[in-house]
Amino acid sequence: MIDAERSIHYNDGMTAQTAPQRPSEARERLLRTASGLFYAKGIHAVGIDEIISRAQVTRATFYRHFPSKDDLILQYIRTADQGIRDAVAAATGTAAATGTPASADSGVRALADFVASQIKTPGFRGCAFLNAAAEYPDVENPIHQAILAHRSWFYETVLAVFSRVTDTAPLAAAHFVMLRDGAFVEGCLADPDTVTKTFLHEVDRILASFHDNAG
After folding, report:
1. For 10, 108, 163, 192, which has the most beta carbons within 10 A of its beta carbon?
2. End-to-end CA separation in angstroms for the chain
3. Which residues pair with 16 in a beta bridge?
4. Cα separations (Å) of 169 from 80, 85, 99, 116, 187?
5. Rounded Cα gap, residues 42 and 89, in angstroms
6. DSSP 126
7. Up-side HSE of residue 66: CA atoms within 13 Å toward CB?
8. Which residues contact 5 (CB under 8 A, 6 or more apart)?
9. Statement: residue 127 has pLDDT above 80
10. Which helix H or strand E contains 17, and what residues bound it?
11. At 9, which helix (H) or strand (E)?
12. Which residue ranges form the domains of the chain, and what is each CATH number?
């Protein structure tokens, strides 16, 4: 992950910019290792020693990049958030480019297809954000706040695609998010194919109801 450019503040108040820092391979390996372990085993179940051992770095290297485990967890949440944002943008960017009803529907369907593809991913064990929220329920905790920020963004994104389909977009978006959450829970407990088919069928029903009412 590329670090932001560093600012050097001088006594005269002037600020000079250094060149962008090169990505740290050790930091990336630590974050990648921790992310896989946190998602697969749960955050509290994974200790720093296991992360250091799996990432093959020294303890000093770990603390140079992450002053505490909470700093690493927060970066895990933020990195997962950015990954989802990028994937959703790629999935829905072209689908909602025009204003016809068919293309509006395709924006919703593209988002639904993306959700379904996540459930079918090997090693899927539910929503990383909901899982983390269960471990960090204190709303004042920065980790919980980062989770809420992701959830807020996701709802607003769903709201935007539904706003091209119906004037009851807030209700439709809330319905979609609840369906998605339920599918994510069921997706790691039952047959993914059945879960995704059910989820997509319900999304189709939502869209069909808007067109029936419009007619």
Report:
1. 108
2. 50
3. 8
4. 26, 20, 15, 21, 26
5. 28
6. S
7. 23
8. 17, 18, 19, 20, 21
9. yes
10. strand 15-17
11. strand 7-9
12. 1-67 (1.10.10.60), 68-214 (1.10.357.10)
Q: How far apart are CA 40 and CA 18, in angstroms?
A: 38
User: Measured between alpha carbons, how far is 204 from 90 in angstroms, rounded to an integer?
Assistant: 21
- Residues 201 and 207: their CA atoms lie apart, in Å, by 10
Contacts of 68 (CB under 8 A, 6+ apart): none
**Structure-block tokens of residue 211:** 């067109």
- Quick one: DSSP state of residue 7? E
In this prediction the pTM is 0.83
Return the SS3 of 18.
coil
Q: Provide the sign of the torsion angle of the four alpha carbons 197, 181, 154, 86, taken in this order.
A: negative
How long a stretch of residues is the chain?
Answer: 215
pLDDT tens by residue, 169-197: 999 999 999 999 999 999 999 999 999 99
CA 53 to chain centre: 27
Q: Residue 130 has which token pair?
A: 């909901």
